[in-house]
């Protein structure tokens, strides 16, 4: 029988944060196989953006601070760490942003910050997207173990996980991560209240969260990259725009741009609002990749999101 214990980690205390992936990061806690963690995680700005903020004037060196690392006793290279997500409780508000030189349509629109109220299972824009509510689907954008060698920034994702921004990493899911160093050194960051596949503008509905998880150690699993066990939420009727190009990235730009045009016209909202809506609720999908030389990418928007 495995005895398990519950521990709390406060990510609002700087001593429990780090700002890069590195095997020399000092563990904030040592736990055993089967232990449960309650982790208080700040938003991706690391508390720099407030509810009354009106711009993106922040210290970028403090973005996406990770809570951890957590040392799992007995874990060694070649093993895997299983993270079972019991619950994710978001904060009462969140934010999204168009950021200079970032996102799928980088520099097409001016930088702008958007604030959301989060209540009763939905996010609603404060002074934007009037009449539209986004169903919550909380998940953890950053989860990863330490690399065997070197130092990596929090962005982009790496073979050990990191900034995957995968909306399947939500309550009820399990994530398997490779162990590259003794202890695994697993960390968590970047909670999202909702996001579409692709996170096309560069942000989701960024928020703080309390994450409850159970850690299991799997010996000799020899993973190369993370594996996620989850369930799909199907949204019913959808509207999809398409991008067709011999460059799959350009096809993604085309599909997103066409959805922005559609939403702006049909909902009588600005292109910037439409871009944010694509990022937090639209799903960018590869629809066809075999009929060379052209590829098809779709931007898929649930009708229940945009039905006022």
TrEMBL record:
EC number of the protein: 3.5.1.-
Keywords in alphabetical order: Hydrolase
Alphabetical list of Gene3D superfamilies matching this protein: 2.40.10.120, Acetamidase/Formamidase-like domains
Primary enzyme class: hydrolase
Domain of life: Archaea
Keyword Hydrolase among UniProt keywords: yes
GO molecular function: hydrolase activity, acting on carbon-nitrogen (but not peptide) bonds, in linear amides
This protein's name: Acetamidase/formamidase family protein
């Amino acid at each position: 029988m495995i005895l398990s214990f519950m521990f709390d980690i406060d990510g609002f205390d700087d001593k429990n944060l780090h700002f890069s992936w590195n095997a020399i990061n000092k563990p904030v806690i040592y736990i055993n196989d089967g232990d449960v963690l309650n982790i208080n995680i700040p938003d991706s700005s690391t508390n720099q953006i407030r509810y009354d903020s009106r711009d993106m004037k922040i210290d970028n060196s403090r973005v996406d601070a990770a809570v951890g690392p957590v040392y799992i006793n007995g874990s060694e290279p070649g093993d895997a760490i299983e993270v079972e997500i019991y619950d994710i409780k978001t904060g009462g508000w969140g934010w999204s942003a168009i950021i200079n030189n970032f996102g799928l349509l980088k520099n097409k629109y001016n930088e702008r910050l958007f604030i959301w109220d989060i209540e009763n299972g939905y996010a609603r824009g404060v002074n934007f997207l009037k009449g539209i509510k986004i169903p919550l689907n909380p998940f953890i954008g950053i989860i990863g173990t330490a690399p065997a060698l070197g130092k990596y920034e929090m962005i982009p994702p790496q073979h050990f996980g990191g900034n995957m921004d995968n909306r399947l990493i939500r309550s009820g899911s399990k994530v398997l991560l490779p162990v590259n160093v003794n202890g695994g050194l697993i960390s968590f960051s970047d909670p999202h209240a909702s996001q579409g596949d692709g996170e096309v503008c560069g942000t989701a509905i960024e928020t703080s969260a309390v994450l409850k998880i159970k850690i299991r150690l799997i010996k000799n699993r020899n993973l190369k990259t993370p594996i996620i066990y989850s369930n799909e939420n199907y949204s019913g009727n959808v509207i999809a725009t398409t991008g067709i190009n011999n460059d799959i990235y350009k096809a993604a730009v085309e599909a997103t741009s066409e959805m922005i045009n559609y939403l702006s016209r049909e909902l009588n909202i600005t292109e910037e609002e439409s871009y944010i809506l694509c990022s937090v609720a639209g799903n960018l999908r590869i629809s066809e990749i075999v009929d060379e030389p052209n590829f098809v990418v779709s931007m898929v928007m649930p009708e229940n999101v945009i039905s006022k």
